[in-house]
Amino acid sequence: MSEIITTDVLVIGAGLAGERAAISAAAEGNEVLILSLVPPRRSHSCAAQGGMQAALGNCAKGEGDSEELHWLDTVKGSDWGCDQEVARIFADNAPIAMREMAHFGVPWTRVKGGPADYFIKGKKVTLEEPREKEGLIMHRDFGGVSRWRTCYTADGTGHTVLYTMDNMVVQLGIKVHDRMEAISLIHDGTRCLGAVVRCLRTGVLKSYLAKATVIASGGFGRVYKYSTNAIINQGTGQSIALDTGIVPLGNMEAVQFHPTGIVPTDILVTEGCRGDGGLLLDVDEYRFMPDYEPDKQELASRDVVSRRMTEHIAKGKGVPSPDGEHLWLDLRHLGEQHLRTKLREVYDICMYFLGVNPIKELVPVRPTQHYSMGGIRVNKDGHAYGLEGLWSVGESACWDMHGMNRLGGNSLAETVVAGKFCGQRMGQWASQQPLALDTKMAADAVVVQQNRINALLGDGLGKANENVDALHDAMRETLQAKVGIFRKGGELEEAVDTLRDLYQRAQNLKLRSSTKGANPEVALALRLPGMIKLGLCVAKGALLRTESRGGHSREDYPERNDKEWLKRTLARWPEGAAEPDISYEPVGLLESPPGQRGYGGATNISMEQSVAKYNDNVKQEWIKQGWHETATPLGAELKEMVEYASTKES
Amino acid sequence: MARQLTFRIFRYDPADPDSKPGFVDYPLEETPRLNLFVALHRIREQQAPDLQFDFVCRAGVCGSCGMMINGRPTLGCRTLTAELPTTITLAPMPSFKLIGDLSVDTGTWFRGMNERVESWIHTQKEFDPTAEEERMDNETAEKIYELDRCIECGCCVAGCGTANIREDFLGATALNRIGRFMLDPRDERDSEDWFELVSTDEGVFGCMGLMGCDDVCPKELPLLEVFAYMRRRMTQVATGQAKPDAGTSQPVIS
């Protein structure tokens, strides 16, 4: 019999969300164990550059900021697709979480009182930074915000916060088992008991049993051909949740394309480039964004800027290159001092990967897949729909503060806020639970996976006539070509058909290698069917959502339709099915009724129902979908609507 | 005419009793801007599906892909083949336990290092969620960040003469980490504590001064300055010339 490891709380993923949740759960008295595909500090959180949003209001352009404004910017950014109560929890807790990270040791960039030079909307300006705020956490500008509120450490924010967080994990003695991949969840149909885990050093399977299992495995951007994501972001966590047939994934069609992936290689350069004054230029080196977005210009929300760039390229204004058309990011006017300190990683990336010196030259960029708003659907405590004892936080979850588009700097902040908040709720829940040790169920679950691996290493699966890499490439190309920034019904239908076919073919894999241990071909073969399933959830969700909202933009349905589509898509995959079952639920209790974003220029079809009536249905509709009762009642974190006359940017 | 490259790659699977360590040649045609991330994936897809190597961010920030490239430890992802001769020899980094082929266990090593140097802020203060953050001047924050940029890739350890002959040597990455916390006013460890931590043969006085670490650090951390500062400070502590808590917030870099 294979080894069984027990713990109170099992966290899958050692990025920022997973580690912060682990720390909270440990503080509630639980024994916590973290699994990670890679050593924790290599998690993709480390690559986040720009910063974390929190309404501390410490600098001149942050003056008058409040949790209220941060919340409203987030709701607008989401195109009213988010759960507004969750956005409240987030905005209210973000300042505390940032200060706590300062206490833990993050070397945040700090306010320097006195005159300081900035580039704002293409012009050089001198502002007086408040001397009484000297030494507090500094902010930079980001897209879609009414105040400067992005806390940062130069352009290595994710790195410094992750290193600080992992320092805490080491200090607390929380165990991390790295190079371990959870390949299925152990459950009895109502309760999650843990996971079957494959060791990526030896290929050996083990089972981990826990009171609470937390998926914090990040995004699934690698289902696309061109993504800024790390190569480990293959959606392993979302896949094993979907495989239960019970747990739904929320809003999988809500995929974010970041305006500035570099060409080629698709590596991200931060939104902080534009926040600090960088400009977008076309083939004529003309600055086009003010023509499309006179108010926000380069700093509209990411969905809007990416669409405007795509529109502009379609007008023949792209820069031709062997790697496809692109636009330019101009950072030259920011100067050497700024680029070699506050944007140092960006400078290094341009120099090493493009051979472009951004101090003197333009940087080739285009919109590139970047973030998954969708994920494992959880309640406001982070508890997954359908299975008791399964939790999820961070990018792998659909908590859902981002709705159909997230603002830059909000997801890195979400990792520590949700990790702290949901981690505490989960830790409190776990500390009240008995440890269910069903060793037979664990052994059976291991056997299922071992049989899959044995077949792969033996004669192959099914007809054994398909190559793993070929199917992997075909999947990524399909999503790239047909489920991109602008979507059309016909192409989406083709994408669904192609992916359905690829999923069937993935039942007939034949490996070229037979190495038993840490064989990378086996690892990909085990992940591939799950990745195709995620791709199908994206494509089918996109096909059925006949409106345009946030990052989901349909050429054939250009309006945001609040009458019919103020909904969250839920995708489940029943056992043996060829494609996901799609259903819908209300987005959550509305505090702010759907309105105008003030950028993006889209038209809306208004709600017919009253807000009161909409809100009346939320709880019962959610319960039907498997929502668990929360620690505080639904709506407890919402506030009375206040007058937003002060929200206009000063 | 594109160059024909030969990748001479170290292959060994320690889990397989029949596997014998050795180099295997893989031919590959060079394409524009080819880096080792792309090249190794092509070799895996086309020629060696079970070839083990580690990449994560492929952008030079996560520290996963340290390897010996023509004898020098560096990051594979940001190494362009255009900078190399047509024969490119790849081997795993020494000093770390081999997992297989080019993959080494840096995770276990660095967790041990972080435990050993107690890589966290030592403070008696409790976090107060209702209070404003403790202030820090921006110059101090920038100096801490300068040393906090280490990505734990292990190149400095692989390139270290001392670490290659004695397993217990802390290595540049650990000494740099200590330097980072010495600079941090939030850390309450004093000169005596630092002395206990680094003034041994395994610490700063075990260094032979070859400074291979400084040559190979992909993040260009100022290791030469960190070492010089630390040796001088520790000598001052040992000879009674430094006050016990002096200089916890002094700059490492002048």
Give me a quick take on this structure.
The complex is a heterodimer of chains A (650) and B (254). Chain A has 650 residues and is an alpha/beta fold.
Q: Radius of gyration of chain B over alpha carbons?
A: 21 Å
Report strand % of chain B: 5-15%
The parts of chain A where pLDDT drops under 50 for at least 5 residues are 642-650
Number of strands of chain A: 25
Q: Report how far apart the termini of chain B are.
A: 50 Å
The outline of chain A comes out as globular
Q: Give the amount of beta strand of chain A, in percent.
A: 15-25%
What would you call the structural class of chain A?
alpha/beta
Overview of this structure, please?
The complex is a heterodimer of chains A (650) and B (254). By secondary structure, chain A is an alpha/beta fold. Helix content of chain A is 34%, strand content 18%. In chain A, the strands form seven sheets. In chain A, strands 1, 2, 8, 9, 10, 11 and 18 form a seven-stranded mixed β-sheet that branches. Chain A starts with a strand and ends in a 26-residue tail after the last helix. Chain B is 32% helix and 13% strand. Chain B has nine helices and seven strands; from the N terminus they run E-E-H-E-E-E-E-E-H-H-H-H-H-H-H-H. In chain B, the strands form two sheets. A five-stranded mixed β-sheet of chain B has the order 2-1-5-3-4. In chain B, strands 6-7 form a two-stranded antiparallel ribbon. Chain B is elongated and about 60 Å long. The model of chain B has no long low-confidence stretch (mean pLDDT 93). Classes of the chains: A alpha/beta (650), B alpha+beta (254). At the A-B interface, helix 3, helix 4 and helix 10 of A face helix 2 and helix 3 of B.
What tags apply to this protein structure?
heterodimer; A: 650 residues; alpha/beta; 7-stranded mixed β-sheet; 5-stranded mixed β-sheet; 16 helices; 18% strand; globular; B: 254 residues; alpha+beta; two-stranded antiparallel ribbon; 13% strand; elongated
